[in-house]
């Protein structure tokens, strides 16, 4: 009889241990909420405050692995469109040690400070950076946009 | 006492069964769904090849693909290396045509979806790709004038029904090419511009016919796709769609800690990009620097998208127009291959460096530095079980 109690006690102990382990596993499981990532705002002042730049996909959506055009809109602080700007584009994936898979270019001026940036291609999900060097009559400035896919 | 043991055993069994059930986070489920073949979009038209979806062109292309006559000595066809019953590859570390090449034959499932061709992307269309082995002295070793004469003699009627009248080849040398032997080059240089254009035109159409055929070679659903479909619909997997514990673990690693999905993404398990992953060179083969040396080749190719033989308008040439021409990461960068069917076609990498998936996984875990340039791969701590699980998962892409 005594041995049965001992087994029961051992059984309960094991069950409690198991419950404890499971509780730890489930409670420490990764949550769906992500840690704060890079600044992904689509509109921001350029690094020296010369312009306000906006960067958005021309068709509204981003498709992985497709050549896409985006629009870079440049305004002065007062909100006037910046015309005749020369734009050089570079970038890459800071966590993957590689640059862009394509060489995007500003191919067209659409008026109202809007420049078409063609030849962008995001080949993988993750953190991308796009760096613009902008030169206009008002001066030269740079701006960096983070795109997280 | 007996009862107690039974209860304990039952408890353990229940807990284990719970652990064995695939349990994926929403983010994992989303990634897994993005890999399923059901997500593969329809094949886009190729406007640079107006015969791409012409059945008669595909039929002629199929004939040419398997025709040993399409080589210098009548011993090699496209299908010599791209074997129809072997996923259109040859199981060899390096392809053997008329001579021994320095690169692994690539399989062809879904090839028409590639933006760049060959391991280094030295061609920018499927039809321009198809022309390259025809004149490579180590592959089919022919020359474009000889191919034009051969087509006229052997397939003239079929050709003309598709592409229109063949040019008058009466004054054209039997062997001539800008890429051939000294004699062939001399013959090519002695031809008039009109003659060269005529030969190049027939030659380009050979590529367009072969490309039309190759467009029909597409990946087929696998166990993974059945599993992924059930996972996304919430259905209980049945039959071979049930994944073992190792396969589930391997899939979790693939889309998670092992970072495989970074480059092997989308329904074809490739980003269609070029990466230096530190794969070592093969002793005895000529120097091979990958993508960095392919840039000049694709720019110089008269059959590239900017060339005179493209159909349609120049808007189709985005990849070439926005080509990355010089960047340190192009050094020893090679195309990300699709992983569909990979488990049943060793050896692996651009020159067949690794003979098994175990070796491939070990290479990525170790992340040895590249002999030249910088590898994008970072070392990864993987247990023996995790390595085996990754391989187990990869096999589900071949079943």
Set out the fold topology.
The complex is a heterodimer of chains A (149) and B (399).
Chain A: H1 2-27, E1 43-45, E2 51-57, E3 68-76, E4 86-93, E5 98-99, E6 105-111, E7 114-120, E8 127-136, E9 139-148
Antiparallel strand pairs in A: 1-2, 2-3, 3-7, 4-5, 4-8, 6-7, 8-9
Chain B: H1 2-20, H2 26-35, H3 55-65, H4 78-81, H5 126-135, H6 144-163, H7 182-190, H8 193-214, H9 223-233, H10 245-255, E1 274-275, H11 291-300, H12 318-321, E2 334-335, H13 357-366, H14 384-395
Antiparallel strand pairs in B: 1-2
Helix pairs in contact in B: 2-9, 3-8, 5-8, 6-8, 10-14, 13-14
Binding site for heme c 1 (chain B): 78, 81-82
Subcellular location (chain B): Periplasm
GO cellular component, one term (chain B): periplasmic space
Helix/strand order of chain A: HEEEEEEEEE
Number of domains of chain A: 2
Q: Let me know the number of strands of chain A.
A: 9
Shape of chain B: globular
Question: Structural class from helices and strands of chain B?
Answer: mainly alpha
Tell me the CATH topology of the largest domain in chain B. Answer: Cytochrome Bc1 Complex, Chain D, domain 2
Q: Unreliable stretches of chain B, pLDDT < 50, 5 or more residues?
A: 13-20
DSSP E strands of chain B, number: 2
The portion of residues assigned to helices of chain B is 40-55%
The CATH first-level class of the largest domain in chain B comes to Mainly Alpha
Q: What would CATH call the architecture of the largest domain in chain A?
A: Sandwich
Supply the number of structural domains of chain B. 2
The Cα radius of gyration of chain B reads 24 Å
Bin the helical content of chain A.
10-25%
Q: What's the arrangement of strands in the largest beta sheet of chain B?
A: 1-2
Structural class from helices and strands of chain A? Answer: alpha+beta
Cα gyration radius of chain A (Å): 27 Å
**How far apart lie the N and C ends of chain B?**
47 Å
Q: Choose one word for the global shape of chain A.
A: elongated
């Amino acid at each position: 009889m005594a041995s049965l109690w001992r087994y029961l006690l051992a059984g309960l102990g094991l069950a409690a241990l198991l419950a404890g382990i499971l509780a730890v596993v489930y409670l420490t499981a990764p949550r769906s909420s992500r840690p704060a990532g890079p600044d992904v705002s689509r509109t921001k002042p350029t690094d020296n405050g010369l312009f306000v730049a906006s960067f958005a996909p021309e068709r509204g959506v981003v498709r992985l692995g497709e050549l896409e055009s985006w629009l870079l809109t440049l305004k002065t602080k007062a909100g006037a469109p910046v015309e005749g700007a020369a734009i050089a584009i570079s970038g890459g994936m800071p966590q993957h040690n590689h640059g862009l898979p394509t060489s995007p270019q500003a191919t067209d001026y659409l008026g109202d400070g809007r420049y078409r940036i063609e030849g962008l291609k995001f080949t993988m999900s993750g953190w991308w950076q796009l760096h613009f060097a902008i030169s206009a009559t008002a001066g030269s400035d740079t701006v960096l946009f983070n795109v997280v896919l | 006492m007996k009862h107690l043991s039974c209860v304990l055993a039952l408890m353990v069994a229940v807990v284990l069964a719970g652990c064995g059930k695939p349990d994926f986070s929403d983010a994992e489920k989303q990634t897994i769904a993005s890999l399923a073949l059901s997500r593969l979009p329809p094949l886009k038209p190729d406007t640079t090849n107006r015969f791409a979806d012409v059945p008669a062109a595909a039929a002629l292309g199929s004939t040419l693909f398997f025709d040993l006559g399409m080589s210098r000595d009548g011993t090699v066809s496209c299908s010599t290396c791209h074997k129809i019953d072997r996923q259109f590859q040859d199981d060899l570390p390096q392809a053997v045509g008329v001579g021994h090449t320095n690169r692994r034959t690539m399989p062809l499932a879904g090839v028409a979806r590639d933006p760049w061709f060959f391991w280094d992307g030295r061609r920018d269309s499927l039809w321009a790709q198809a022309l390259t082995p025809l004149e490579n002295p180590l592959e089919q070793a022919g020359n474009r004038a000889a191919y034009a004469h051969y087509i006229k003699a052997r397939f003239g009627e079929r050709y003309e029904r598709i592409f229109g009248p063949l040019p008058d080849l009466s004054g054209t040398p039997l062997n001539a090419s800008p890429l051939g032997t000294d004699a062939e080059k001399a013959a090519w240089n002695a031809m008039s511009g009109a003659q060269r254009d005529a030969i190049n035109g027939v030659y380009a159409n050979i590529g367009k016919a072969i490309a039309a055929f190759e467009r029909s070679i597409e990946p087929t659903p696998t166990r993974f796709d059945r599993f992924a479909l059930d996972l996304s619909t919430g259905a209980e997997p049945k039959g071979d769609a049930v994944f073992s514990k190792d396969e589930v673990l391997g899939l979790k690693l693939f889309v998670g800690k092992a970072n495989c999905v970074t480059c092997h993404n989308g329904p074809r398990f490739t980003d269609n990009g070029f990466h230096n992953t530190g794969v070592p060179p093969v002793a005895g083969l000529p120097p091979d620097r990958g993508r960095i040396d392919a840039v000049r080749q694709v720019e110089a190719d008269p059959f590239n998208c900017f060339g005179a033989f493209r159909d349609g308008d120049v808007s189709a040439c985005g990849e070439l127009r926005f080509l990355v021409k010089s960047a340190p990461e192009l050094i020893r960068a090679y195309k990300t291959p699709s992983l569909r069917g990979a488990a049943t076609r060793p050896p692996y990498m651009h020159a067949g460096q690794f003979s098994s998936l175990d070796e491939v996984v070990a290479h990525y875990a170790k992340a040895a530095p590249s002999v030249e340039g910088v590898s994008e791969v970072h070392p990864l701590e993987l247990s023996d079980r995790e390595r085996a699980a990754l391989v187990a998962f990869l096999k589900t892409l071949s079943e």
